[in-house]
Amino acid sequence: MNLTISARSLIAHQVPRPIGGAATAEPLLSEAVPELPTNTLAFFARRLMRSIQDRGQAVEVDPRFEDPRLPAIIQELLRAEEMDLVEPSQRAARHLLEVQPGSPYESESLFVTADVVANGVSSIALMKLEREEGVHVHTRDIDGKRVLDVEVLEDLMLTDNTRVFKAGVFWLDQDVLKGYVSDDQQGARDDPARYFLQRFLGCRLERSPSIVTRDFFQAAEDFISEQVGDGESKLRYYTALQAELSSNRTQIDPVQFASDHMQQEDRARFEEHLLGAGVPTAAFDKDISKLGPRVSRSRLRTSAGITISGSASEIEARVEVAQYEGSPAVVVKDTVAKV
Amino acid sequence: MDLKKLGDLYDELHPDLQEIADSLTSYLKDLVRKTGVKGANVSSRVKDKDSFLKKVLQKSFKGEPWTDPIVECTDKVGCRIDVVYLADVFRLRDEIEREANLKVQKIDDKAVELGADSLGYGGVHIDAYPPGREDDFATCEIQLRTHAQAAWAMASHELSYKGPVGTTDEQRRGLNRLTALVELFDEEVDRISKEIMNSPSFPLSIVIRTLESLWLTKIGRPYREDLTAAVVATLLEGISEDDAKTLSDRISAFADERAEQIVEAVRALDHDPLMSQPELLLIYFSLSEDKFAFLDLWIKKGLDARLLDEAAVQLAIKLPQPS
Which of A189, B69, B170, B305 has its CA 20 to 30 A from that of B244? Predict the structure, then answer.
């Protein structure tokens, strides 16, 4: 998705690591919104944009969720005539401490709430940043109020050592809360590190991974079938698509797929085709449950109407497009077993 | 001929002539812009009443009196287009001749009139009706000249009227001698211009000039010219002049369309002097056109993929990991 973000102000709180599933310490809360240099706000926005562009998924408030605290805090901020980040963001930080699991996945982290503009619309961004060695926060006093040191923030946003990065951007669309969420720790759905979307934000994906995976497969198959000219590329792309879906990887990155498997002249067209078909180009969780045997079995039809079908791996190993007596030909390296 | 009455009639016509002069100037400015002639000055004037009356008298003294001076005097409104290159004088002459809105009546190519064995002023004078006007008194004179020809004409005009009794043969010969320098000057400028345009680096300079101009007007930050030249030369190696012009136009349109986003992106990339440069506009344009092809080119040229990724993020463009 094309989401450009600029940040107007932000506040950071330190959230300690919970031990044994329960919060054992109080969060270190900032008591004022710091005056930040433009560059720091720009770094923040860039880090946020990168995360959303790479892995952002469209989300909506989950009406089945019993604890709507976070959506309420975000809406309260977005509806305020004069946005004051301090108290609502403190509540959000406490909520995070309460819901995050006590597991080796987590370490001491910074929780950032920011007033941002996303694609020209006033929005709220939330980020959770961690580092393996933990975050050593320094504070300073401004007019008797505690504020987390800016250098810590800059360091976290700029360095590649930041291990876990969870982010969300939210805005009101006709009074309905909409947004994108990205999570560097995306994995299996029962992974405890996935608490961020559901238990903390009280949201769900707008489209389930199984639907997105199915739509991606369908759009990619249509593109290969209808918009790729030569047979050799068709076969190669189709084989790559099936390999992608049947691999052990837990995510599909459409842009990376195009770059890794397609010829240069087809890549941008492929991405445009996906966007036109409503398929996100950010990486998404793979779930092939709605594809059935289409993942494991390939079916090719020649221009003369001959159909070749078989397991994806056998097709990949035995079928190729080559030249035979000066004309394109489909070669099946096999013997006839039955008529 | 009653000069007083003729003068009064000219006074009555003056506002209309001024209107014709203004609209013709604006029309010719537009024509120059569309033709792509650079460094041109377009100006106009309505002949003063005394100059008009003096010209009427001179015609009589020469034994060629005008029967209807208001109609027959064709330079009551005069427009001048002064250009850098002699070649542009002829380009504009051809354009004006083709313009359907200007009804051309006569073209005087002074250099052709001089012939092979004379030296003198070599501009092109065109008599034409201005757009939308074909009243018999509305004919205007359009003068096409190089800046050098204009300088000579101005000096010559000024010196010719210095003394009340005119100039001597010796003085006129001195003035005419100067036209040889004007001719030499214009031909050298054209020759050097052609040489520059035929050099392999010329197309690059078209793009660089566009990038620098956009950078200064939209971003207004200092930059390193040598770095811009080096990056553009690397990315656009072998580009033709036509492609460079098309690319420049498209980058300009892109920069206009995405101005706000670009300003924000530049602010965010401020910490990196390598990316806070005019070539960033070329990079953004190319990423928007085909990010995959541009990433391949970037890597092929040995440039750092992380730098490109940093820039791409700012425009909400997702790049793949290079293989």
Answer: B305
Could you give the angle at the alpha carbon of A245 between the alpha carbons of A61 and A55, nearest 5°? 40
Is A338 a domain residue? no
**Residue A319 in domain:** yes
Q: Which chain B residues contact residue A254 at CB under 8 A?
A: none
d(CA A179, CA A166): 14
Nearest to A296 by CA among A309, A277, A283, A281: A309
CB nearest A264 (choices: B296, B313, B316): B296
pTM: 0.69
Can you say how many angstroms the Cα of residue A336 is from the centroid of all Cα atoms in its chain? 47
* DSSP string for residues in B7-71: HHHHHHHHHHHHHHHHHHHHHHHHHHHHHT--S-EEEEEEPPHHHHHHHHHHHHHTT---SSHHH
Q: State the pairing for strand pair A327-332/A319-324.
A: antiparallel
Q: Report the gap between the CA of B280 and the closest CA in chain A (Å).
A: 16
Q: Is A34:A40 a contact under the CB 8 Å cutoff?
A: no
Distances (CA, A) of A154 to A40, A46, A53: 6, 12, 21
How many CB atoms are located within 10 Å of the residue A292 CB? 10
Instruction: Let me know if residue A339 belongs to a domain.
Output: no
Domain ranges, residue A97: 5-206
The residue of chain A nearest to residue B318, with distances taken between CA atoms, is A53
Q: Are strands B77-83 and B140-146 parallel, antiparallel or unpaired?
A: parallel
How far apart are the C-alpha atoms of B98 and A225, rounded to whole Å?
51
Choosing from B150, B169, B193, the residue where a domain stops is B150
Task: Report the residue of chain B nearest A282, measured CA to CA.
Answer: B318
The residue with tokens 């946005």 is: A83
My answer on whether A223 and A270 are in the same domain is yes
Residue B268 is nearest to which of A46, A53, A271, comparing CB atoms?
A46
Per residue in A33-50, pLDDT (tens digit) is 988 888 778 878 888 888
- Integer Rg of chain A from CA: 24
Q: Of A150, A185, A206, which one is at a domain's C-terminal end?
A: A206
Q: Å from A197 to nearest chain B CA?
A: 23
What is the spatial distance between Cα B83 and Cα B150, in angstroms, rounded to a whole number?
Answer: 9
Same domain, A159 and A216: no
Q: Are residues A11 and A96 in the same domain?
A: yes
- A71 in the same domain as A166: yes
> Could you tell me whether strands A57-61 and A176-183 are parallel, antiparallel, or unpaired per DSSP bridges?
antiparallel
Tell whether B143 and B210 lie within a shared domain: no
pLDDT in tens, A103-141: 554 567 789 999 999 988 999 999 988 765 555 667 788
pLDDT tens for B295-308 read 999 999 999 898 89
Q: Which domain holds residue B213?
A: 203-314
Specify the amino acid at residue A314. Answer: E
Q: Which residue of B has its CA nearest to A265?
A: B293
B299 touches chain A (CB under 8 A): no
Identify the closest residue of chain B to A56 by CA–CA distance: B318
Report the run of H or E that residue B175 belongs to, with start and end: helix B169-198
The minimal CB distance from B292 to the residues A50, A53, A264 is found for A264
Closest residue to B313, CB basis, from A39, A50, A258:
A50
Tally of domains within chain B: 2
Measure the N-to-C terminal CA separation of chain B; round to a whole number of Å. Answer: 90
Distance of residue A295 Cα from the nearest chain B Cα, in angstroms: 24
| Cα of B300 to nearest chain A Cα, Å | 13
pLDDT value, residue A299: 78
What are the tens digits of pLDDT across the range B168-212? 888 888 888 898 899 999 999 999 988 888 888 899 999 999 999
